[in-house]
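In the design runs reported in the main text, the only information available to the sequence generator was the tokenized backbone. The following block is the verbatim input for one such run; it is reproduced so that readers can re-run the procedure and compare outputs position by position.
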């Protein structure tokens, strides 16, 4: 069964921020309040940037973002698929794939030709979805992969 993917709403922010802190920012000093503030900014963006959620019983169990800037100042590329995370108890059911495809479709409908991402551990996941590895990068002593994907512009524009 295909997971439902929806735009993030205000009442989703705290749950999404908790998912993101646990997945990406544990031990970094980034607070729940800081992450929630960044997510709130996406709700009022100009329409290109987007936060999507995969809810189960109206509670987000996964999220993915489309943002203009990621990991400054590593690259001047834009825009970015960022922050893909699915709660551990819900992985392996297609939610991550559905979130990525929804962000790709949104970006293509906005006229984006190439989308970028960084990944530390999920290179094979993204390669299976058609992403290409560009280069290995270092951030805070950790190796990550810069990847890109050319988007299909047969998607109707909004």
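Verbatim output:
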């Amino acid at each position: 069964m295909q997971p439902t993917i929806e735009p993030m709403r205000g009442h989703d922010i705290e749950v999404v921020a908790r998912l993101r802190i646990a997945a990406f920012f544990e031990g970094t000093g980034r607070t729940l309040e800081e992450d929630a503030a960044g997510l709130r900014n996406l709700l009022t963006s100009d329409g290109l940037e987007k936060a999507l959620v995969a809810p189960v019983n109206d509670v987000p169990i996964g999220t993915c973002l489309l943002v203009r800037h990621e990991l400054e100042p590593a690259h001047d590329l834009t825009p970015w698929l960022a922050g893909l995370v699915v709660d551990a108890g819900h992985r392996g059911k297609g939610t991550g794939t559905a979130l990525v495809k929804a962000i790709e479709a949104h970006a293509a409908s906005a006229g984006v030709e190439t989308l970028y991402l960084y990944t530390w551990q999920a290179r094979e996941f993204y390669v299976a979805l058609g992403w290409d590895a560009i280069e290995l990068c270092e951030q805070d002593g950790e190796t990550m992969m810069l990847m890109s994907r050319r988007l299909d512009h047969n998607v109707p524009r909004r």
